[in-house]
Design a protein that fits this description.
By secondary structure, this protein is an alpha+beta fold. Helix content is 26%, strand content 27%. It contains six helices and 14 strands. The chain has helices at residues 2-29, 63-73, 116-130, 208-218, 262-274, 312-315; strands at residues 37-44, 51-58, 93-99, 102-107, 138-143, 146-147, 175-185, 192-203, 235-241, 244-249, 281-286, 293-294, 298-299, 304-305. It starts with a helix and ends with a helix.
């Protein structure tokens, strides 16, 4: 009887040791569901009011393959129907290219059928998922090779992690609409032309002043208008105090790839911002510095005011 009891204890002790060895082996080999790098996949909740995230681990180190993997995961429908997948079968991703940090995702014609909040949430889910990859800094959508436009016909443009800001509940903040009057270069690059954008949808967490500068960096949507700012320029900060708008841009601003005059670039920013009711003057800095000259011609120490003589319709007469 004593022997049986002893054998029983030894048996269960052996089972326990075997289990511990298996556990240690799994930890040593990085298995047990805990291996790989953690990423987050973003989906749309069933009420279509916010995006939700799900942790995802991958052992893929090649970013090109990892991008394919994440995009594939975004097309997998939840078995329990807990959320909606952004890459659903209602439209198709037909291709993508990555060039100098800019990922272009090209969709078929059915993407244009998306409307309102759902379309914004689809974009937010996809962008927030792929922007986690180190080689991807910006994302843009195209439909059959043409830039995606909103319901007003204005190009959506380039997006990044700041384009979709969440509140504490993972909900994309309410979007508002605003009419903007922006100034870009004419064909010869020596005067400004107006571009009126109606019903521009923007996130309420982004100030109108920053929105204006970001739209200028993205470039014009109209065919008769031309860009004035290096598209690699990053908008570091935009603040307003006592009627003066302080615009802080990255060093790329100093590199001008377009055939436009110095005044056209400066007053493209100034005239566009002064269209806002709370802005009277503009101070431009580069990486926080104003004690420099733009293209060695115009000191950024100056406070710039609206200059209507730069308009093609008046100044070129």
């Amino acid at each position: 009887m004593v022997r049986k009891e002893k054998r029983g204890k030894l048996f269960w002790l052996g089972i326990l040791l075997a289990g511990m060895l298996c556990l240690l082996s799994a930890c040593a080999n990085g298995t047990g569901g805990q291996s790989g790098t953690v990423y987050y996949l973003y989906y749309i909740n069933n009420d279509e009011t916010k995006i939700i995230s799900r942790e995802y681990r991958s052992e893929t180190t090649d970013e090109a393959l990892l991008l394919e993997e994440l995009l594939e995961e975004l097309s997998v429908i939840s078995e329990r129907l807990e959320y909606e997948t952004p890459l659903a079968k209602e439209f198709a991703l037909v291709g993508h290219t990555l060039d100098n940090g800019l990922l272009t995702l090209d969709f078929d014609e059915r993407y244009r059928e998306l409307r309102g909040a759902r379309e914004v949430l689809v974009r937010a889910s996809i962008v927030r998922t792929v922007i986690q990859l180190k080689q991807i800094e910006r994302v843009t959508f195209t439909v059959k090779g043409e830039p995606l436009v909103d319901q007003a016909g204005v190009a959506v443009g380039v997006m990044n992690e700041e384009s979709f800001i969440e509140n504490a509940g993972n909900e994309i903040n309410a979007y508002e609409k605003v009419d903007l009057r922006l100034y870009f270069a004419n064909e010869t690059g020596d005067y400004l032309v107006e571009e009126n954008r109606l019903n521009v949808v923007y996130n309420s967490n982004i100030s109108l002043e920053k929105l204006v500068v970001e739209k200028l960096v993205e470039g014009p949507a109209a065919k008769d208008a031309y860009p004035t700012i290096n598209p690699d320029t990053k908008v570091i900060s935009v603040t307003v105090q006592d009627g003066i708008c302080y615009v802080n841009l990255s060093g790329d601003f100093l590199n001008q790839p377009y055939n436009v005059t110095t005044d056209v670039t400066i007053y493209s920013i100034t005239n566009s911002l002064v269209e806002l009711s709370n802005v009277n003057k503009v101070q431009i800095s580069v990486d926080g510095e104003t004690n420099i000259s733009y293209r060695e011609k115009l000191s950024l120490n100056n406070l710039f005011e609206r200059n209507l003589d730069m308009l093609e319709s008046t100044g070129s007469r």
